[in-house]
């Protein structure tokens, strides 16, 4: 699962049929604006703090946000269909609690991971089925899913549970050296692998194109004979699965399970997707944009850390401001297109 | 063509919804290489029949065979797999995707599990070229094209599917004349290549121009199947509305109105010149004088309600002008219309007019309160007086101000709706189907009331599907056909048949 060679910024420029389809037009303007914003922020950072302009600072954006990248991938699928998934943060916490508890009881790491993936995917599938067959707003169904998953965390334990199992601590400490003294964590490779798969699925499979079609006009998609029902259900299952993966990645990162962890992370994921150029109304956006969205959120945090005097709550304020600006931008683009 | 097996054969089809039989024992046949029109007024069951054939609705009973194979569709996908493709009035494609994707969505050619975008491009070019639409860039976004082009792209999609049956549901309703010609060229081309085409349109002239045969439905039942060249426009219309000429002539014996045309010489209350709206109606020249009732006559779906909505500002006109009391005005919203003392009793009193869960009093007061502004509450005593006055004047039953609207009969609901507008003292009252679905007694009361209001100096625009009623109430009649006003007749002894002749009247 590591075709990451297809994903470094350099090889992305390689022309492929999909690239030529991606080229040109206002379609990419929101995403390009995000890329521009990211580069500008990086340049400003480099100007203010000499040590900012280092490869490792850039790589740390990935290392510190692997779980958010994976969440944003799942969320991109959901939002592209015009839906929303509020449960992802709570499912991350639940995945961490389940892993920490079972590992403490001596379960095998592989078995724990499989079980966690099944729980996350299963919860997502269940929510998708309810949304589709009872025709209920995704907002409400996934809100219920959020309370359920968070509640289950409290049932498991109110206290933080440390993870001391060998595989997890190994993953937490492992560094994969790149050129020079640069390195990434194994989680980064996994997250980027998932991004690559998501990109392929969205742009090169019928399932992916159906996701876009549903977001463009669900009724039309139905009348065109596309498998609308199964696609919508699957999208929530995918998001649940991504949440479980993100939970495991977060466990590698934090080496504990805590029922209050990942509070509000669903909103970070939604913010990253929107800042990355995906329209909340569905049908327009790119998974690579969502990754850049995560990097933008990451660089805001890095700024606060470098400054040292600002409260970390400034991250939230800046993200809120950015979100507002990007939603207004989207509205402007939509008006022009319309 | 009798010996040929039909491409589509529907036998004894029935579909019901709660409280309604939308289709009841309908037979329908569609042959290869023909354009077949499905005719009927709104609500006759045309859309339901199409949706049965496209798998949107599942039939309750009856049988569908496509190319000799019995079929029972429960999803649009199944219908498409059987070779049936549909282009709807509101184009059902995805605006956020490219032309080529829309043409091939769900059937993209794949190589080793991945969509082969090069092949997508070349296949799209091929099918566009086949339809002489090479000027369309396959890589452009669908939303950058006009509705007309989008419709052609939808047709390209069905050609790509290799559809044996192409259903066109009101394809021309938002196209201009050139675009219609282009569409017809493509339709004829496909017909000559053996595609069976089912065409539905409200435009009589287009139906006569393009179709070879027609099937007429009325109230969910089959009236008959005819060759277009054997069925005159007159007999088609009488089959659609369900009354033959003799019966219509007799009904006309009813006494016509005997009110002096009060308008001559005076300034009209409202005067429209060349009024129209793209995709809705065009070419409305109509003046209504104080104290005059003007009727709109035309088939259901001809554009009567659309004209009313333009007068009331519910839709914005994009061509022509309106004068109110001689002064040029733009009516941008219902609010603006109400300020100019125009009232509109809508066709659909449940959806757009009355609030069923409020009482008679509340509904009456609502309009009055809205015109006074929300801040100044109307005192209960004044409310009581007014409500009692209107209940008596219009003979609303039960004469109980606190009865819930939804418990009143249709006729009495209609009277409450009328009263609601009368409370605001409009100078022009637009009545869209005010007597539909109400009993004969209430109907007569409402007709009398219309006369009385006009006698008191109000201008009234009266819309009804019942021609005899229009003639009984109106001083003048404007004839609407194919979404344009085609004639204006002074109602001095005009018969229903005369109006029908105008509606059926030859080419545009």
UniProtKB/TrEMBL annotation, chain A:
Signal peptide: none annotated. GO terms for molecular function: transmembrane transporter activity. Keywords: Cell membrane, Membrane, Transmembrane, Transmembrane helix. InterPro entries: ABC_transp_permease. Its main location: membrane. The chain crosses the membrane at residues 28-52, 58-79, 109-131, 138-163, 183-202, 233-254, 287-306, 312-333. It is a multi-pass membrane protein. Residues 1-22 are annotated as: Disordered. It is found in: Cell membrane. GO terms for cellular component: plasma membrane. NCBIfam families: PRK11618.1. PANTHER family: ABC TRANSPORTER PERMEASE PROTEIN YPHD-RELATED-RELATED, INNER MEMBRANE ABC TRANSPORTER PERMEASE PROTEIN YJFF. This is Putative sugar ABC transporter permease protein. It comes from Arthrobacter globiformis (strain ATCC 8010 / DSM 20124 / JCM 1332 / NBRC 12137 / NCIMB 8907 / NRRL B-2979 / 168).
TrEMBL record, chain B:
The keyword Cell membrane applies. One of its GO terms (cellular component) is plasma membrane. It is found in: Cell membrane. Keywords: ATP-binding, Cell membrane, Membrane, Nucleotide-binding, Repeat, Translocase, Transport. This is Putative sugar ABC transporter ATP-binding protein. Residues 8-244, 264-507 form the ABC transporter domain. It is a peripheral membrane protein. The keyword Transmembrane helix does not apply.
């Amino acid at each position: 699962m590591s075709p990451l060679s297809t994903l470094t910024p350099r090889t992305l420029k390689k022309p492929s049929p999909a690239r030529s389809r991606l080229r040109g037009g206002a379609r990419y303007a929101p995403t390009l604006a995000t890329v521009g914003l990211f580069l500008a922020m990086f340049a400003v950072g480099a100007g203010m703090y000499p040590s900012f302009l280092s490869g490792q600072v850039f790589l740390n954006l990935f290392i510190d946000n692997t779980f958010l990248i994976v969440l944003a991938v799942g969320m991109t699928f959901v939002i592209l269909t015009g839906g929303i998934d509020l449960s992802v943060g709570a499912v991350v916490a639940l995945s961490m609690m389940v892993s920490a508890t079972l590992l403490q009881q001596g379960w095998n790491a592989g078995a724990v991971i499989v079980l966690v993936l099944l729980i996350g995917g299963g919860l997502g599938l269940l929510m998708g089925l309810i949304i589709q067959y009872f025709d209920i707003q995704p907002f409400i169904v996934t809100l219920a899913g959020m309370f359920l998953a968070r509640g289950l965390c409290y049932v498991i334990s109110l206290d933080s549970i440390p993870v001391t199992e060998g595989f997890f601590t190994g993953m937490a400490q492992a560094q994969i050296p790149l050129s020079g003294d640069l390195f990434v964590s194994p989680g980064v490779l996994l997250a980027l692998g998932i991004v690559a798969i998501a990109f392929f699925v969205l742009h090169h499979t019928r399932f992916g194109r159906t996701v876009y079609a549903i977001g463009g006009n669900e009724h039309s998609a139905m009348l065109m004979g596309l498998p609308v029902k199964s696609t919508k259900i699957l999208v929530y299952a995918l998001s649940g699965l991504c949440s479980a993966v993100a939970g495991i990645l977060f466990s590698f990162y934090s080496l504990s399970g805590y029922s209050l962890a990942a509070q509000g992370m669903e909103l970070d994921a939604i913010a990253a997707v929107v800042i990355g150029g995906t329209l909340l109304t569905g049908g327009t956006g790119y998974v690579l944009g969502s990754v850049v969205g995560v990097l933008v959120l990451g660089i805001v945090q890095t700024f606060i850390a470098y400054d040292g005097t600002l409260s970390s709550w400034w991250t939230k304020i800046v993200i809120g401001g950015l979100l507002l600006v990007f939603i207004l931008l989207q509205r402007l683009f939509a008006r022009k297109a319309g | 063509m009798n010996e040929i097996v039909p491409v589509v054969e529907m036998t004894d089809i029935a579909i019901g919804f709660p409280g309604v039989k939308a289709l009841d024992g309908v037979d329908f046949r569609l042959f290869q290489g023909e354009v077949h029109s499905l005719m009927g007024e709104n609500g006759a069951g045309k859309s339901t029949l199409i949706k049965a054939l496209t798998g949107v609705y599942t039939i309750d009973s009856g049988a569908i065979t496509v190319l000799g194979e019995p079929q029972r569709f429960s999803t649009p996908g199944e219908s498409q797999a059987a070779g049936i493709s549909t282009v709807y009035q509101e184009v059902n494609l995805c605006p956020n995707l490219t032309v080529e994707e829309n043409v091939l969505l769900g059937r993209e050619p794949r190589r080793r599990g991945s969509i082969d975008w090069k092949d997508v491009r070349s296949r799209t070019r091929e099918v566009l070229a086949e339809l002489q639409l090479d000027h369309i860039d396959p890589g452009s976004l669908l939303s950058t094209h006009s509705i007309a082009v989008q419709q052609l792209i939808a047709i390209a999609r069905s050609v790509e599917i290799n559809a044996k049956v192409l259903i066109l549901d009101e394809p021309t309703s938002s196209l201009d004349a050139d675009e219609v010609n282009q569409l017809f060229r493509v339709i004829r081309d496909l017909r000559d290549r053996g595609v069976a085409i089912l065409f539905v349109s409200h435009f009589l002239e287009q139906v006569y121009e393009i179709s070879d045969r027609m099937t007429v439905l009325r109230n969910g039942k089959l009236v008959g199947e005819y060759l277009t060249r054997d069925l005159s426009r007159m007999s088609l219309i009488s089959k659609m509305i369900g009354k033959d000429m003799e019966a219509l002539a007799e009904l006309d014996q009813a006494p016509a109105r005997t009110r002096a045309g009060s308008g001559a010489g005076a300034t009209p209350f409202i005067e429209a010149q060349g009024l129209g709206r793209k995709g809705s109606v065009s070419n409305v020249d109509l003046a209504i004088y104080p104290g005059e009732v003007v009727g709109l006559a035309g088939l259901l779906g001809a554009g009567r309600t659309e004209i009313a909505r333009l007068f009331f500002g519910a839709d914005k006109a994009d061509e022509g002008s309106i004068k109110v009391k001689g002064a040029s005005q733009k009516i941008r919203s219902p609010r603006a219309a109400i300020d100019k003392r125009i009232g509109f009793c809508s066709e659909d009193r449940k959806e757009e007019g009355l609030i069923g869960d409020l009482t008679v009093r509340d509904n009456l007061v609502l309009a009055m309160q809205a015109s006074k502004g929300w801040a100044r509450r109307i005192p209960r005593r004044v409310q009581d007086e007014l409500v009692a006055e209107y209940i008596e004047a219009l003979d609303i039953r039960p004469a109980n101000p606190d009865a819930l609207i939804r418990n009143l009969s249709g006729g009495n609901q209609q009277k409450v709706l009328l009263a609601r507008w009368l409370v605001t003292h409009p100078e022009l009252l637009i009545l869209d189907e005010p007597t539909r679905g109400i009993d004969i007694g209430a109907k007569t009361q409402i007709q009398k009331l219309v006369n009385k209001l006009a006698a008191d100096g109000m201008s009234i625009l009266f819309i009804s599907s019942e021609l005899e009623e229009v003639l009984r109430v109106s001083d003048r009649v404007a004839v609407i056909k194919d979404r344009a006003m085609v004639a204006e007749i002074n109602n001095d002894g005009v018969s229903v048949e005369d109006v029908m002749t105008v509606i059926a009247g030859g080419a545009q």
